[in-house]
Each structure stands twice: as structure tokens, then as C-alpha cells.
Design a protein that fits this description.
Distance between the termini: 12 Å
Family: Belongs to the glycogen phosphorylase family.
Oligomer: single chain
Organism: Dorea hominis
Strand content: 5-15%
CATH superfamily of the largest domain: Glycogen Phosphorylase B
Structural class: alpha/beta
Number of strands: 23
Shape: globular
CATH class of the largest domain: Alpha Beta
Number of helices: 33
Protein name: Alpha-1,4 glucan phosphorylase
Low-confidence stretches: none
Bound molecules: ligand 26Q
CATH architecture of the largest domain: 3-Layer(aba) Sandwich
Largest sheet: 10 strands, mixed
InterPro entries: Glycg_phsphrylas, Glyco_trans_35, Pyridoxal_P_attach_site
EC number: 2.4.1.1
Helix content: 40-55%
CATH topology of the largest domain: Rossmann fold
């Protein structure tokens, strides 16, 4: 049944009216941005009804809820996605057509909400979509950064960051909720008081504080009238600068609080998989965690009097260690504000909090200097000391005389607060994000904890939402899938995709599948022409690597191979070579120099290769500027080859790999992260696997690395490529521009041998896998089957499956349904 608000005449009227009341304009006079606003407010009208009904139903049923705490939510644009989940996309498109408005152009007016870096933030967004779609009560809790992930410009081949002022035109989907504001306190000192019963109380004095003000975003479930909430917090000064303080002579305090409030939520840290021990980052963490917990407890207390029941009604999932201060803050609230005893508070906390690990990269582990931590959060620090003291007693009981264990496992050690240790000790569940990753955690990184508390450890292989990454990003394929399966079930039940296997031997179907891929390549080629000015051939192989730029992800391996191919083509012009387009998209953290050099190198190679007439356009290299959720949707749809080439053991899961698979691309990858499970689903013959295994990598690492010089000296073609980094070929004669990259491959790195990411070691095996890709692609029939089989085998990788596993094994939530009539 269609929602009456989306009924064509009614919807058109609403849009017209919105343009009038918001902007005093007619449709014809309004700018595209104004039309976006007017359409979005009309959509929000419809969402609000369901939102209210959902929240009333939750109020009535009182289901157990999950609070998904995350520093990042990489949501992507809301308008198109909301229309899809309300099942109103086509109706609205038609209604707007009748008004002479192009929905796609309107969607393009929406700034991409980029409150996240990459995989971890996008995973949080997919999880919210799945939670609402499956009918589970959930809150996303995060920060309303004034500036999200920076916008990337490429100037002269270099990355230049510009601020992402995503709120400048206002956000039609958000709802400010000042009535739920909470105070959050920082710093000062703790005074101990005793009451008349001799009980101790801890009072924070001389603190600074800010007001956390929530903004709610609707999270629309697919076709089920459920609307959950993403609650992100803004900071405001508590004292009103202009009215009170000046008069009261409190001018300095007022300015300070104003600054504190402004600074806290100013900007997302653009580090991905890298820890920076900045005080402001810790302030951000405590700020949103404290506000979210206060709100959660207040909500619980509206219905319940006994806090011992808290774990039956709420569960808190910590997205990596970033919100781990939650365990101590929950203890603080229970002890100091609710006057509970330690043992009771601890039991409640350890039944409520759970932790997801997203990385084994040592440089990403959060370890806060005790000095900084205890000054900023004095009471929370005292509580962590007590947690640590009791934990050490436990370790000593279990491993008498083994002080080495204590040293390895302690929360407070070497002048640091080790957040992962705190999360594991206080959490009731610890999970990794792909099978291999969880095994590595258990056997290596977190081995001591696993041995002491094996029952906490479990795996939850990541997933992605097919609503955004197929329905919205690739409507042609989505419609084709529905037609071939004869049902839309796959939209909420992705394993149904396996039904496509019956078309594997149907030539007509294969042709249709490939012509949809072709259309999507044409669409991307147009985008590339518009944004990069580069002409690419949609009949060439689109070989794509899009993800954050990081050494372990090995974009350098990819571009070195492009340099190698270029040499081959130049040297053997007679050899047949299937035309290829290598597409990159990646942001480098602003301070990550080597990552930025790799971006420059890719652009330099692109310049040389794309402008060399002698190779007849056989090879093209494109660096897509400002890779983000909105252009990602188009890129996945257009890819033939999915580059997933991290050093084995380093990529916890990867989720881009799943988005490519869903859209009918073949994986070219190492046996790392979720690639292992992708190959398991699609079969080894339908993927291109190369390189060292994670065991081999770990083994080398434990023995100080490997000798990259030996490979360099014994493989002349590879040597030539590496030397081209410093012979000026790609630097207009400058031999120093890429010296550091060259050194990284051949010179010892600190205490390690050279090439810590095994690029030269894996090069030959990568080049061979690339040859197999080319051979497979030439055989049109074989290729079509292979990529259709990829789409047909992607069922496991829906975030719906992942969320159901979290619910069954960790969260134990109650399922909710909302009736049709509203
Ligand atoms: C930590 C401290 C201070 C500043 C920043 C950070 C920080 C920020 C972001 C540390 C790590 C991240 C992001 C990590 C991340 O995105 N990890 C990815 O998570 C995905 C979802 O599970 C996996 O698929 C990827 O394999 C993993 O790299």
C-alpha cells in the first residue's frame, strides 16, 4: 500500500507549498538546492509519522535496545536512501518529473554527510540500516561534527584538503532536541565527603563543563514503517556568554566554556587506522559517551526503578575502543549518582557493555598517557584504577607468580591507559569482524585475554546493506535481479540471490547482465570525463581500488604494477594487450606524508601514461578526486575487477570487497580479512588470489622480516620499475620526489627490514594473477559467468545477516513490528 503522502498529487502539492513557505518562491524560481530542501521536507513529513509511531510502540512494548556507540557514522546521502526504504522512490521520481524536476539532480544537491573516515564508520551506517529493517530497537550514538571528513582536491597531483562545511544550508532531516540536553564535566579535582551514615561520596570541583545538545536523525527501515534514531551530540556553552557572565564578572570562564564547546565538536579526526594521542580527541570521546549514557539511564528510569535490571533492557556496543570510556562512565553514574555498591555496579556494567575490535595494526591501538587522562577525567580515572587493581588480583589468582602476564594484561601500565584492555576486562563480549581476523586476535594479539576468558570471544563477519549498494547505487541491476528471481525478496533476504545461479548457462541472461555492467561503465566514464577531464573507454577492463590510503592496503603495489605494464607495452608493442583502465580513489590522512606521496605517484603515472599517444589508449590511469559514499555507489556498479590487495593479516575485514562482489566484480586479492570468506562463497576458480598467506606474513614478522634486496636484484623487470621511482621517469627528471617510497622498499625501516608490507615479495604473484584476469576477461562467456556467480554468491555479506548474528549471540534484542495503518 502506498503511503498517502507519496500519492502524486499530494506530494506535488507539498513540494510546491514547501518552496513557497521556505523560500517565497515558485518551483520555476527555486534553485536546485532549494528544491532539494523542499523535497526533503516533504519526505520528512512522511517519515515523521512512522517515527512517532515507532517510538510510541517502543514505549509501549519496552523492548531491549542496543546503543551503538561510535565516533563515526559515515551515512552518505539520506534523501534517495529514505525514499528507497519508504518504497516511494519511483512514485516520487514520477511526481517530480511532472513538476519538471529531475530527482537525480536534486539528490546531487545533498551534501554527503561524512561523519566518518572509512570502513568503521560506514559499517556503523550499514548496521543502523539493517537494525531498522529487521525491526530492532536501536540508537546510534555519536558526534555532530561541525566539519566531517575533509573534501579532497587534487592540485598538481597532490592531495589538498578543504573543509567539509556540510551544515551550511541546514539539514532538512535533522531534529534538534534541546529538551534532552545533558551537562558533561571535564577536569577539576575530586573532593571526598562522608555523609551521616559514614558513606563516602566523591564530588568533582573546579571543573569545566559543556552542554551536550542532541540532534536526532531518522533511520528508516525497509518497507516496515520502523524508524529508529541516530542521535548525534552538539556542544553548547552552559553559561550564556552574553547575558549572565559578563555582568557577573565571570568573563574568562564564559569565554573558556564558549571555546571548549566550539572546539569539542569542531572536526572529525581524519585518521584511519592510526592513533593520535590528542587531548581533544579524548574530550570528544568522553563528551558523547557521557551524554549518551546519561540519556540512556534517564530513559530507562522512566519505566524502571531497579537499575539491576539495566542489562535486561539495554546493551551498549562499543565500536572499537573509541567509546570505551563508557565502561568507567557507567560505573561512575551507578556509583556516584545512583549510590550503588561497587560489586553491584560492576555486575551491571559487565553485563551491559560489549566491544568490537576492528584492527590489529599496532599503531591504531589507543593508549592514553595517564597524565593527560587523569587530568581531564579525574573521577573516571580513579574508577579505572580500581578496575585495574581488582583485575590484577584476578590475574594473579589465576596465574600465581606470573608477573609477566600481569605486565602484558594490565590496564594501567607504562604510564598509559590501555583502552583495549579496559574494553575486554569490562565487556561481556569481544568480537572481531571476519573469521581470519578473530582467529588472529585469539592466537596472537589478544591471546592472553582469550586464554583467560575464552567465553567472551566471538566472530561477527562484517556485512553491507544491499538497499544502498545495489538498489540505490545500481538500479539497473537491482531491477534485473528482481525480474530474474521473480521476486523482491532479496531486498531483505540477500541469500535469495543464489536463485540467479539458474541463469548461469543462459546466454541471453549473461548478455543482459554484461550490458548492464556496460551501462554502468558508461555512467562512470561520463563522471570521470566531467570530473577529471580524462577520456576512458567503457569497453576496457575497469580495474578498481577505492579505499582509504594506507601502506598496508598497498596502493603502491597496484601502481608499481601499472608502471610495469606500461614498460611491457612500450617494449613489446606487437604483443596483444587487452585495454585496461586502472581506477583509484583514496583519501590520505592529512599528516600521513608517505600516503600523500603515493597519491602524487599515482597522479604522475596517470599523467605520463594517459598522454602517451604511442600506446594507443591501451592503458589509462584515473585518480577519482574526493572518493566518498555518493560516488562510491557508482564506482562499485561499474567495476570489473575489485582490488583487495592488503598485506595478509592486516585488513581486519574490508567491506568494499563485499560491495564489489554484490555488483558483479571479480575479486583480485590476498587471503586477508573477509576475502577469505568471499572466496569460500564464490569458489577459488571465480576469484584471483595471490600472495603470502597471513601465517607466512606473521612468520616473517616474528623473524625480523625478509630480504627485499634479494628480490630486487634477481628480477630485472621489477628492479627497473623500482628504479623508475628515482630516475625521474615520473617526476619530470626529479630523482628525489619518490626517494622515500624507494627507500621504504629497499632500506631498513627502524628496527625492521625493508618493505614491511611485502610489496616486492608479492609482486610477481600479483602480476601473474593480473595476467589471469586478462585471460579470463578475453573469454567473454567465462567472464560473464564468473561475475554473475559473484553477484549470486554474495548472500552471506548482507549486514542483515551480521546484525541478526549480533542479536542472537550478543545483544538478545526483542523483535518489533509496526502495523500498516497509521
Ligand atoms: C584512533 C585514535 C585517535 C584518532 C583516530 C583513531 C582511529 C580512527 C578510525 C582509529 C581507527 C579508525 C578506523 C578504523 C577502521 O576503519 N577499521 C576498519 O574497520 C572496518 C569495519 O570493521 C574493516 O572492514 C576494516 O578492515 C578496518 O580497517
Amino acid at each position: 500500500m502506498i503511503n498517502p503522502r507519496f500519492e502524486k498529487q499530494a506530494f506535488k502539492k507539498e513540494v510546491k507549498n514547501n518552496v513557497k513557505t521556505l523560500f517565497r518562491k515558485t518551483i520555476e524560481e527555486a534553485t536546485p538546492q532549494q528544491l532539494f530542501q523542499a523535497v526533503s521536507y516533504a519526505v520528512k513529513e512522511a517519515i515523521i509519522d512512522d517515527w512517532i509511531a515507532t517510538q510510541e510502540q517502543y514505549e509501549k512494548d519496552d523492548p531491549k535496545m542496543v546503543y551503538y556507540m561510535s565516533m563515526e557514522f559515515l551515512m552518505g546521502r539520506a534523501l534517495g536512501n529514505n525514499l528507497i526504504n519508504m518504497t516511494a522512490y519511483k512514485e516520487v521520481k514520477e511526481a517530480l518529473d511532472e513538476l519538471g524536476i529531475d530527482l537525480n539532480a536534486i539528490e546531487d544537491q545533498e551534501p554527503d554527510p561524512a561523519l566518518g573516515n572509512g570502513g568503521l564508520g560506514r559499517l556503523a551506517a550499514c548496521f543502523l540500516d539493517s537494525l531498522a529493517t529487521l525491526g530492532y530497537a536501536a540508537y546510534g550514538c555519536g558526534i555532530r561534527y561541525r566539519y566531517g571528513m575533509f573534501k579532497q582536491k587534487i592540485e598538481d597531483g597532490y592531495q589538498v584538503e578543504t573543509p567539509d562545511n556540510w551544515l551550511k544550508d541546514g539539514n532538512p532531516f535533522e531534529l534538534k532536541r534541546p529538551e534532552y540536553a545533558k551537562e558533561v564535566r571535564f577536569g577539576g579535582n575530586i573532593r571526598v565527603e562522608y555523609d551521616e551514615h559514614g558513606k563516602t561520596h566523591f564530588v568533582q570541583e573546579n571543573y569545566e563543563s559543556v552542554l551536550a545538545v542532541p540532534y536526532d536523525y531518522p533511520i528508516v527501515g525497509y518497507n516496515n514503517h520502523i524508524v529508529n534514531t541516530l542521535r548525534i551530540w552538539d556542544a553548547e556553552p552552559i553559561v550564556d556568554f552574553q547575558l549572565d557572565s559578563f555582568d557577573r564578572g565571570d568573563y574568562h570562564k564564559a569565554v573558556e566554556q564558549q571555546n571548549l564547546a566550539k572546539n569539542i565538536v569542531e572536526v572529525l579526526y581524519p585518521n584511519d587506522n592510526h592513533y593520535a594521542g590528542k587531548e581533544l580527541r579524548l574530550k570528544q570521546q568522553y563528551f558523547f559517551v557521557s551524554a549518551s549514557l546519561q540519556a540512556a539511564i534517564a530513559k530507562f528510569k522512566k519505566k524502571h526503578t531497579d537499575l539491576h535490571e539495566l542489562p535486561e533492557k539495554i546493551t551498549i556496543q562499543m565500536n572499537d575502543t573509541h567509546p570505551t570510556v563508557a565502561v568507567a562512565e557507567l560505573m561512575r553514574i551507578l556509583l556516584d549518582e545512583e549510590n550503588m555498591e561497587w560489586n553491584d555496579a560492576w555486575e551491571i556494567t559487565t553485563k551491559t557493555c560489549a566491544y568490537t575490535n576492528h584492527t590489529i595494526m599496532a599503531e591504531a591501538l589507543e593508549k592514553w598517557p595517564i597524565d593527560l587522562f587523569s587530568k581531564l577525567l579525574p573521577r573516571v580515572y580513579q574508577i579505572i584504577q580500581e578496575i585495574d587493581r581488582r583485575f590484577v588480583i584476578q590475574v594473579r589468582e589465576m596465574y600465581p607468580g606470573n608477573e609477566e602476564k600481569v605486565a602484558k594484561m594490565q590496564i594501567l601500565r607504562d604510564g598509559q591507559v590501555k583502552m583495549a584492555h579496559l574494553a575486554i576486562v569490562a565487556g561481556y563480549s569481544v568480537n572481531g569482524v571476519a573469521r581470519l581476523h578473530t582467529e588472529i586476535l585469539k592466537k596472537q594479539e589478544l591471546r592472553d585475554f582469550y586464554e583467560m576468558m575464552p567465553e567472551k570471544f566471538n566472530n561477527k563477519t562484517n556485512g553491507i546493506t544491499q538497499r544502498r549498494f545495489l538498489m540505490h547505487g545500481n538500479p539497473l541491476l537491482a531491477d534485473w535481479v528482481t525480474e530474474k528471481l521473480g521476486t523482491k525478496d532479496w531486498i531483505t533476504d540477500l541469500p535469495k540471490m543464489s536463485g540467479l545461479k539458474k541463469w548461469l548457462d543462459d546466454e541471453e541472461a549473461l548478455k543482459e547482465f554484461m550490458s548492464i555492467k556496460y551501462e554502468n561503465k558508461v555512467r562512470l566514464a561520463k563522471y570521470i570525463k566531467e570530473h577529471n577531464g580524462i577520456e576512458v573507454d567503457p569497453t576496457s577492463i575497469f580495474d578498481v581500488q577505492v579505499k582509504r590510503l594506507h601502506e598496508y592496503k598497498r596502493q603502491l603495489l597496484n601502481i608499481l604494477h601499472v608502471m610495469y605494464l606500461y614498460n611491457q607495452i612500450k617494449e613489446h608493442p606487437e604483443k596483444s594487450f587487452y585495454p585496461r583502465t586502472f581506477i583509484f580513489g583514496a583519501k590520505a590522512s592529512a599528516g600521513y606524508i608517505r600516503a600523500k606521496q603515493i597519491i602524487k605517484l599515482i597522479n604522475s603515472v596517470a599523467d605520463v601514461v594517459n598522454n602517451d599517444r604511442s600506446i594507443n589508449g591501451k592503458l589509462k590511469v584515473v585518480f577519482i578526486e574526493d572518493y566518498r559514499v555518493s560516488n562510491a555507489e557508482w564506482i562499485f556498479a561499474a567495476a570489473d575487477v575489485s582490488e583487495q590487495i592488503s598485506t595478509a593479516s592486516k585488513e581486519a575485514s574490508g567491506t568494499g570487497n563485499m560491495k564489489f562482489m554484490l555488483n558483479g566484480a571479480a575479486t583480485l586479492g590476498t587471503m586477508d580479512g573477509a576475502n577469505v570468506e568471499i572466496v569460500e562463497e564464490v569458489g577459488a576458480d571465480n576469484a584471483f588470489i595471490f600472495g603470502l598467506s597471513s601465517d607466512e606474513v606473521i612468520n616473517y614478522e616474528q623473524n625480523g622480516g625478509y630480504d627485499s634486496r634479494q628480490i630486487y636484484n634477481s628480477d630485472p623487470e621489477l628492479k627497473r620499475v623500482v628504479d623508475q621511482l628515482v630516475d625521474g621517469t615520473y617526476a619530470q627528471g626529479d630523482t628525489e620526489m619518490y626517494r622515500d617510497l624507494y627507500n621504504s622498499l629497499l632500506m631498513p625501516q627502524g628496527n625492521n627490514q625493508a618493505d614491511v608490507y611485502f610489496i616486492l615479495k608479492d609482486f610477481r604473484s600479483y602480476a601473474e594473477a593480473q595476467e589471469k584476469v586478462e585471460a579470463a576477461y578475453r573469454d567473454k562467456d567465462r567472464w560473464a559467468k564468473m561475475v554473475l556467480l559473484n553477484t549470486a554468491s554474495c548472500g552471506k555479506f548482507s549486514s542483515d545477516r551480521t546484525i541478526q548474528e549480533y542479536v542472537d549471540d550478543i545483544w538478545k534484542l526483542d523483535k518489533e513490528t509496526i502495523s500498516e495503518e497509521i
